[in-house]
Write the structure tokens for this entry.
Amino acid sequence: MVWKQSQIACYNQMTPKRKLRKFLEKFLSVNIMRLIGFLYGLILPAKKSYSSAGEDLIILQYFKDKKIDQGIYIDIGCFHPIWASNTYKLHKLGWSGYCFDIDEFKLKMMSVFRGSRIKTFFQAVVPSQDISDGKNSISVYKFLTPWSDLDTCDPIVAENYASKYKLDYTVSNVPAKDINSILKNLPSIDFFKIDIEGLDEAILMDMNFDLYSPEVILFENVETWSGTKEINEKLEIYGYQQLFVSGFSVCYAKPILRE
């Protein structure tokens, strides 16, 4: 294979870990690479925080102040049971959860490592207009990289990631459901976490807060720091206040009323 100058330049700019991944991909199957990615997440040195940017520490303190000891969370785009998890610290304290993802293997590992206190759902969570024509499935874009954190239901986001990170992806169909239909069949949620690469705010804008109002909402926006004006206004209308912004994460919570 003859590499172009642009490909060589891109390779030279990669981190050592990404160079190693590209090298191993030539010799190992996708399943073996996925297993390596999972094991890498398990053997990382233990930290006080399991989140990417310390989000779980603030969330934990909020619930301590709120005197909610063993609540219920929903983790949409759950990724990994421990690595970069915003719900693992809560799980360790005895919380129960509902975990959604578009990757069956990730969900299987969630079940293995978190046990009976969670229920997993192989399902894409989408805005209601995306399935308004009666469809019960949607195309998803899954990247060929160990334990991918880039998988998405948004084709534009998928193309942007493919170009930015020089990665390939596969397209497949998975079951899909809108957020209000999902929440209708769940108990009251204390912590609502969503990270689904490009659709977080669309889901929240579609969500019926008159019926469903978690204590804390954590979402991601990689384009607009602190989230867009539209989502901020909606959350504030329903009585939420911004708890923090950390990295790409934006967190809103109901005020704590001091006695």
Q: What stands out?
A: The mean pLDDT is 90. The first strand starts at residue 72 and ends at 76. The beta strands are 72-76, 96-101, 118-122, 124-126, 137-143, 169-178, 191-194, 216-220, 241-246, 249-253.
